[in-house]
């Protein structure tokens, strides 16, 4: 059985890595007025943060179902199955779109996977799936491996301005108002597929230290981990933090990712986070 791997643009997997592991990407859209940009194709993360400095905050849109159908039909010529790794169904209809499209194509078995998260942590799932697919592992076994990895996956992040999340409907207005009033840097995470507060912390540095401690709690149980430091137009700060973390946790492989245009629309510039998962023996 030949298995293809698809993910959406919010995984923010660098193009060279997508090419290396033959990962197909379907883009979400960022809309500035009448201008529509396909994320990771028409607009990079750095271009996006420049655009929002001079324009009103954009809206975002999931891929049309027809785009999924077209891709699945194309893949059916060379593959028997396709695994689709998507951002959390609690914040986007992208996963459901893949599900719906899967009922509209013939000749290929479609396996949508709800990562229940986003950004490069979502990307970790897609890369793992692609590595296994390249070894000829069947789709059901790959899906079981992704479910196993989900049990070891964590991600925490903070935002500079809670109003972005509130305006986009990703956080309640009451939570946003209270957070802004108290000038806190709340730690946020995904719980039951949606973004919820984890802890309220007063300063950015303390919030980052708390995230590092949470990583430490997991890695103390042993084993090797992969982690990603994720930033919203704070690349130098992310590099410095990555270096500090690498010295503190030598059994963790750290990379740097970013909150791209779609996720950045809802979190805002200056956001910072980290996600990780355990490396499982194959």
CATH topology of the largest domain: Hypothetical Protein Tm841, Chain: A,domain 3
H-E order = EHEEEHEHEHEHHEHHEEHEHEHE
Uncertain spans, ≥5 residues at pLDDT below 50?
none
Percent range for β-strand residues: 15-25%
Rounded mean pLDDT is 91
**Structural domain tally:** 2
Question: What structural class do helix, strand and pairing data support?
Answer: alpha/beta
Number of strands: 13
Strands of the widest sheet, in order across it, are 10-9-8-13-11-12
Question: Major β-sheet, in short?
Answer: 6 strands, mixed
Form type: globular
CATH architecture of the largest domain: 2-Layer Sandwich
- CATH class division of the largest domain: Alpha Beta
Radius of gyration: 18 Å
Please give the share of residues in helix: 40-55%
Helix tally equals 11
Please provide a written account of the structure:
This protein is of the alpha/beta class and 282 residues long. It has two domains: 3-28 and 63-150, Rossmann fold (3-Layer(aba) Sandwich), CATH 3.40.50.10170; 154-278, Hypothetical Protein Tm841, Chain: A,domain 3 (2-Layer Sandwich), CATH 3.30.1180. 41% of the residues lie in helices and 25% in strands. It has helices spanning 15-20, 45-54, 65-75, 94-102, 119-134, 139-150, 163-167, 173-182, 204-219, 235-248, 261-267; strands at residues 3-8, 23-26, 29-32, 35-38, 59-61, 81-86, 109-114, 154-158, 187-191, 194-199, 225-231, 252-258, 272-278. Helix 4 links the parallel strand 6 and strand 7 (109-114). The two termini are 19 Å apart.
